[in-house]
Amino acid sequence: MWGISSPADGQVWDSDKVCQERNKEMKSKSRTSADSAASTDKSSIKTGAQIIVDTLIEQGVDTMFGYTGGVVLPLFDRLYDAPINFIIPRHEQGGCHMADGYARASGKVGVVVATSGPGACNLVTGLATAMMDSVPVVALTGQVRTELIGNDAFQEADTTGITRPVTKYNCIVKDASDLARIIREAFYIASTGRPGPVLIDIPVDVEVNKCTPDTSTKMKLPGYKIQTGANARQISLAAKIKHSSRCSMSEAALSAQTPPKS
Question: Could you say which of 145, 148, 209, 245 is the most buried, measured as most Cβ atoms within 10 Å of its Cβ?
């Protein structure tokens, strides 16, 4: 066995033991770094419901409205501990009108939550009101599991098809990794240009699936262009219509004032 003598204290160091101890230290350090990396990866993985709540908070939502239901329970579980004031109405239609009124009064985007089927259908009147009056509202509706869509499942309805005429934009999310991006886009579309309601339909399996959320805030909406200037042709056409209507009104007034011929 090889040994190293220390001139200071006369002790003999075992080189094999020193190597073994150094190997142990290196292994423990590598394990610690691997464990910390694994814990970091785990902490970055979230359920779809948690991603929804985190993105709502990121968008500045502090008050929202809605009614509970089976397929939105995973979302409500995450909302329970969130710093969001949640107001439950007696009916989904009332909740949508409340979100509409909140948006008008606060200048923020109103947010409403409803379950699938009848819950989502009850939002239609409120969405139509927001659409007609150009009020920014984001509606989050639950939906049956992805594989059950189109199979007449319990409380299933074609939410995006029903609400297409009364929303500025709507979509269904089929991948949890798209949730953060779609919610950001929904708030952007609802509050820019001519404001209006946007609906996001979220299947329950997307709410419980886990993934790493998309942290990119850059908007990629090639089909959505905000008109910042007036169209010269439309202005000219409007002026002609206005002028012709004034001439017609003047002729009608003159004919009314002219006494009839005897």
Answer: 209
